[in-house]
Every structure is written in C-alpha cells, then in structure tokens.
Write a structure and sequence with these properties.
Blueprint lengths: L1 H8 L5 H19 L6 H14 L8 H5 L10 H19 L12 H19 L5 H5 L8 H20 L2 H4 L20 H21 L3 H19 L4 H10 L4 H24 L7 E2 L1 H17 L3 H9 L4 H22 L2 H6 L3 E2 L2 H39 L9
Antiparallel strand pairs: 1-2
C-alpha cells in the first residue's frame, strides 16, 4: 500500500497514461454534458466580470454575447471546470509535499510572463480556442479549424523558441555565491493533511450541488478536479511539447498528446454516433491561423500554456500568476477588438464552420483524423531522429538520448 501511495504522490505519472486518461475523460464529459473541456472561454467571462465590477458597460460587446455571460463563474459548468482544475491540481501538489512559494530570481521573467500571457490569451480567443478547445478536445470533435490551429501553433512556438534562446530575452543570469550555505528546508509534512481537508470540503461541495438539484455543476466540478489531477501528476504542458521538440529534440510529450487525441477521437465518435450528438464545430477562417500563431508565440514567451500555468501556479510559482493575469488581459482585449476594432469582419466573417463528419461521414472523418495524427506522430519521430543525428555530428563522441 505504501509503495502504491509513494508512486501516486511522490513520482510524476507517465505522460502517456495521464494524457490518455484525460482524452477518455474529455470524451465522457462531452457525452454527459454536450460541452467540451475548455478554459479560455471562462477566462473571457472572468475578464467581463472584472470590467463590470469596475463599472464598465459591456452590454454592447458582441464577443461577450458569443461566450454567454449569464450568471457568475460559480453558477456555470465551465466555471467549475476551471476552478475544479485549480483545486484538483492543488490537492495533488499538497499530497506530494510540493507546494512552495517560488519567485523568479530574474524579475524580467514576471514581465515576460505577463506579456506572453497577453499574447497567448488574445490569440486563443481570436482562434476561438486554446490548446484544449482548438487542439486537444477540438480534434476529437472533428472540427477542421483545429488542424489549422495546430499548424499555426507549431509555427508560433518555433518563432517563440528562437526568441527565447536569444541573449536579450534570457538576460543576465542571476548567480549565487558559492560559499553560501543552503537554507534549512522546513518540514512540509503538514501539506498532505491540508490537501486532505481541501479534498473533503470539495467533495462536500460536489454533494451539495447534486442535493440541491444542480447536477451539471456537480458533474463539472468532478471532471474539473480530475482534469486538474491529471495535468499536475502528468505535468501536462503543451508549451513543453512544442518547445522541447524545437530546442532539444525531445518528443515525449508531443507523442503522448497525439496518441491521446487518437484515443479520444475514437471514443468521441462512438458517443456522437450512438447518442446522436452534434459535434462542436468552430469557424475556420484567417483568424484561426493568426490566433493560433499568436497563441503558440505567447505560450513559449510565457513559458506555459493554460494547463501548465494552472498546475504550476498551484505549486506556488509566482511567475504563473502574471501569466494568468496576462491571459485575462489578453482575452478581454480580444473581446473589445472583436467588434470595436473590426477584427470579426476583417478576419472571421469570411470563415466557415467545417466538420469532418459532415464532409466525409463518420468513417471518413475518423480515418482522416487518424491519418493526420499519424503524420504528426511520424513528423515528431523524424524531428527526434534528425535532431539526435545533428547533435551527434556536432559533438563527436558524445551520446545524446532523446525520449
């Protein structure tokens, strides 16, 4: 029993296991609620609520009508997906004794996190989705816009990786004196008990939702916590999937994401066909590519995508508080620019909602999806091999292992 608990809470989980479980759960969540696992839509609503708190009139903002501002974040299922993710991640961080306030030594990182978060948030909502709704859960919905978004995100992360390698971006490293004695680490044995208390309180809240006849909120709270547990234990971050591929040739996270999307696509198709559900399809337009590119660039500059930001913030990493703030600012800025600056008419209005099931039928849609995912997987493997070969040539005699 002790060995099992040690494996669950001391060691991080295999990304393949965590991501495949997340893919299965996202398909089940869609089957139960008719909605998908997503976060930046709720970030946008949070931005709207903040504006309202300060007295702004957003009644004529078309984007807020698009994302449905009714109620509060605590009365919406999408809200409890987000808060559940935070809480689930925090519980696992505490169970593993891993919470610690961490402030980056280079204060410029806080500014970079804020700027990257703004760019990523703006891009995500321009493309009508982030690394979840326009990527991980968008592909299993067979929405063609997700494939445009993936390509654009790849291009954006590549540019971001190039920028992040430059000296002016990295800045002068902060050095510590060699004779400085390490500070004594305070006992953190209390953390699992705090995590247990939070878990019990959250369980009580979920039961309250069901008892008071709000099963949708209870369901969202359950799945949100499960997603939070998985992203924290699996250290799931789409930024690292792309950035590691470009900078070090590591493809572990990227391959795990691809396999998980394949599994989720198959299950989601069964849900759609058996229960006669309508897949969620977003507009494929120039905004999809531009938004995806900005999102990819922003997440690398910020050092985190939305999922990575959430569990790292729960670990006590202050940098990701600025990333979160940047996300809220970015999505709110996009909501304003949508109609007030004419972005909708310039980049979105000409687009069209295209679903692969409607275009090719269920069998054709799943075959096309699996073929495209296979191509992505092979390209990832090719990048790994070519990077390894280049590294071996440049550093003769030095072995370079890429997972």
């Amino acid at each position: 029993m002790k060995a099992i608990l040690n494996k669950l809470f001391t060691h991080y989980w295999n990304p393949y296991v965590a991501l495949i479980l997340a893919g299965i759960l996202s398909a089940i969540y869609f089957g139960i609620t008719g909605t998908v696992w997503a976060v930046t839509g709720e970030f946008t609503r949070l931005g709207g609520h903040i504006l309202e708190f300060f007295g702004a009139d957003i009644s004529d903002w078309a984007y807020f009508d698009l994302v449905h501002m009714q109620g509060s974040s605590f009365s919406r299922s999408d809200g409890w997906i987000v808060w559940g993710m935070f809480i689930g991640a925090l519980i696992m961080v505490l169970f593993s004794n891993n919470f610690k306030i961490r402030v980056p030594k280079q204060k410029r990182r806080l500014v970079q996190g804020l700027a990257g978060g703004i760019i990523a948030g703006f891009g995500a909502r321009l493309a009508l989705g982030c690394n979840l709704a326009a990527f991980f859960t968008g592909v299993p919905q067979f929405s063609f816009h997700s494939w445009i978004f993936i390509i654009a995100t790849g291009a954006g992360t590549y540019l971001g990786a190039k920028i992040a390698k430059t000296r002016w971006w990295k800045g002068k490293p902060s050095l510590t004196k060699g004779d400085k004695k390490p500070s004594a680490e305070k006992s953190r044995k209390v953390q699992p008990y705090v995590g247990g208390i939070i878990a019990l309180m959250y369980t009580g809240l979920i039961l309250y939702f069901f008892v008071t006849d709000r099963p949708l909120l209870g369901t969202a709270a359950i799945f949100g916590a499960l997603f939070g547990i998985l992203i924290e234990r699996g250290q799931i971050c789409f930024t690292s999937a792309f950035r590691d591929l470009w900078l070090t040739g590591r493809g572990l996270m990227a391959k795990a994401i691809i396999i998980a999307m394949a599994v989720s696509s198959v299950i989601t198709l069964f849900v759609i066909v058996i229960y006669g559900m309508e897949p969620i399809t977003q507009i494929a337009a120039p905004s999809t590519f531009i938004g995806g590119f900005l999102f990819g660039l922003g997440i690398v500059l910020a050092s985190s995508c939305e999922t990575g930001m959430m569990y790292r913030l729960m670990e006590g990493q202050i940098l990701y508080l600025t990333v979160f703030a940047g996300n809220i600012i970015g999505v709110t800025a996009l909501a304003y620019a949508w109609d007030h600056l004419g972005l909708y008419h310039a980049l979105v209005a000409s687009g069209k909602s295209i679903n692969l099931i409607s275009a090719f039928g269920p069998l054709g849609a799943i075959l096309a999806t699996l073929v495209m995912l296979s191509i992505l997987y092979l390209l990832t493997v090719y990048r790994q091999k070519t990077y390894r070969f280049a590294g071996m040539r440049s550093k003769k005699g030095e072995k370079k292992y890429v997972s």
